[in-house]
Amino acid sequence: MNQQKNLPIGVFDSGVGGLTVAREIMRQMPNEKIVYFGDTARVPYGSKSSKTILKYSGQIERFLLSRGVKAIAVACNTASAYALPELEKDCPVPIIGVIKPGAKTAAEITKNGRIGVIGTTATISSGIYTEYIRELMPDVMVHGRACPLFVPLVEEGLWEDPVTEEIARRYLAEMMDEGIDTLILGCTHYPLIRKTLAKVVGDRVRLVNPAYETAKELEQMLESRGLLAEERPALGSADSQYSFYVSDMADKFQQFANSIIKYGILSAKTINIEEY
User: Fold this and answer.
1) Range of 115's domain?
2) Catalytic-role residue among 54, 75, 153, 187
3) Does 147 participate in catalysis according to the annotation?
4) Domains: count for the chain
5) What is the pLDDT of residue 237?
6) Domain boundary among 163, 189, 210
7) In 187-228, where does DSSP find H-type helix?
């Protein structure tokens, strides 16, 4: 069991959004090693069919298991919505998605029982946030809104740009009229535009960042299984603690990763995910 503690945590996403989850794991569990996979060749998942999402997620799960991970975080709301139950079935290690931790926190903190959820078209269409929140709070009102323009804006680095703010106002106007007091950032890209979203909704609405909540729940899960790493890996480059893999465009990914993760220069390797 001791040896298992020193194995890395696998984290995957359709692209770069899941880096917000990886960043939270680094902050909250500095002793842990991470193997991250971003499916940059096949992004976005938000507009794909559930069958395709399931196929892609299965390939990535097999890749991460081949790297000897001790747990897997599905750092993609769309994959968590459509593939998690299947991935859990045959997975020999603990696996966690980003939806339940965010839904749970939203249910705990809402005062008026009106919760907003923003995410990709696929995540919102799945209705999964509503389903989970209603299991905890049957009378809650959940207002979902797909916000497809946020992902390209985030990837262009327009995090606090007037264009992003204007689009956010349009997307969120109806929810604000409904009097929500809690807003779930139901896509792992969205924490990067948190400041802009906070400005639009004002201080009466609390923002729930599932990336933060997932890292917290993952830590509790590892601790309960005696799998938490007890000491930091031997000193050296960040590369020895954190490994990044992508299915395409490693340079672009690396540039984006370094803009949000401040742990030295990170490099990314390209692999052929179709082989898994």
Assistant:
1) 99-210
2) 187
3) no
4) 2
5) 53
6) 210
7) 194-201, 210-224
